[in-house]
Automatic annotation (TrEMBL):
Record keyword Signal present: yes
Residues making up the signal peptide according to the UniProt record: 1-22
Protein name stated in the entry: Nucleoside phosphorylase domain-containing protein
Keywords per UniProt: Signal
PANTHER family given in the database record: AAA+ ATPASE DOMAIN-CONTAINING PROTEIN-RELATED (PTHR46082:SF11), ATP/GTP-BINDING PROTEIN-RELATED (PTHR46082)
Length: 334
């Protein structure tokens, strides 16, 4: 059986699709911990395994629970059960905020990037009305450990020179897990990636965008297809907004993208980062507008997981014991 004290990396997921994608990229899956080595009060679900010599704990939030509060509530049990965790990662899907400066498309990856003294994640509070919004920086210990930030820089440099291997790694993973192709984890048809103009609003109904919003050019923002010299999916580094509600408003999305430099939106990272510092990686599954659907969620989860596996390959598997234990960060916070 596995010894919980051997594991040094925590990979957090909020949704089942994210958890499935994470499991797919393990080099090896390990047995469950021996009976009695984890507190009976710990009701979290875990998968244990290894990636590039690292022993990794995959954890998922309870079914039907997501958001800042839910993410924060599971952390204490995790770090009691796996007391030697040194690195925290929050990996999953998010809504993109494309602009002229940032050509973000479905399936792309956004990585939280420290800037101006913060760790790349802002916390927002969205009121009853979309514009009733307080936008504030997350607080405590907001930067990931140096070893993680160094690995991010090294991987970014490698990708600039050689390109990323996300597509190839996903294809290999799907070959090993062919069921997932039929479960929505393969790349959808490129023509289904449509960015509507901000004033084109989908009604509150179950009617599809194809049926109601249509595909006429006057409703869409024109974008050139990516060619062989472009990274596809592309990886973007910058600000991720994390808050209490899903953003479904293209006008608000564009406002925050222009004024704050937000690249994507999600709902769990602030709850984690208020407890301990972590890196946040998001695969883009929609455009944070009214035209939401689930067609790209599985593939976006795979692109985020594939990037994370490449990142862990940049972190030396030896020497993590010199990094501070995340459980200590919580004790200091409390």
């Amino acid at each position: 059986m596995s010894n919980p004290n051997d594991y040094t990396i925590l990979w957090m997921c909020a949704l089942t699709a994210e958890y499935v994608a994470a499991q797919t990229f393990l080099d090896e899956e390990h047995p469950k911990p021996a009976a009695g080595t984890i507190s009976i009060s710990d009701t979290n679900a875990y998968t244990l395994g290894s990636i590039s010599g690292h022993k990794v704990v995959l954890a998922v939030l309870p079914k039907g629970e997501y958001g800042v509060g839910s993410a924060a509530s599971v952390i204490t049990n995790i770090l009691r059960s796996f007391a030697n965790i040194r690195i925290g990662l929050m990996i999953g899907i998010g809504g993109g905020a494309p602009t002229k400066a940032n050509d973000i498309r479905l399936g792309d990856v956004v990585v939280s990037s420290p800037k101006d003294g913060h760790g790349g994640v802002y916390h927002y509070d969205l009121g009853k009305e979309s514009q009733d919004m307080g936008f504030k920086q997350t607080g405590f210990l907001d930067q990931p450990p140096t070893v993680v930030r160094t690995a991010v820089s090294a991987l970014e440099s490698k990708h600039i020179r050689k390109g990323n291997h996300i597509v190839e790694n996903i294809e290999d993973a799907l070959e090993r897990n062919p069921r997932l192709k039929r479960k929505g984890y393969a790349c959808p048809a490129p023509e289904s990636d449509r960015l509507y103009k901000a004033d084109v609003v989908h009604p509150i109904s179950e009617e599809s965008c194809d049926a109601f919003c249509g595909t006429k050019p006057n409703k869409l923002i024109a974008r050139q297809p990516r060619d062989d010299e472009d990274d596809n999916p592309a990886i973007h580094y910058g600000l991720i907004a994390s808050g209490n509600k899903v953003i479904k408003d293209a006008i608000l999305r564009d406002k925050l993208a222009q004024e704050q430099g937000v690249l994507c939106f999600e709902m769990e990272a602030a709850g984690i980062m208020n407890r301990f510092p972590c890196l946040v990686v998001r695969g883009i599954c929609d455009y944070s507008d009214s035209h939401k659907n689930k067609a790209w969620q599985g593939y976006a989860a795979m692109t985020a997981a594939a990037y994370t596996k490449e990142l862990l390959m940049e972190i030396p598997s030896e020497g993590l014991e010199h990094e501070g234990r995340l459980a200590v960060a919580i004790e200091r916070r409390e």
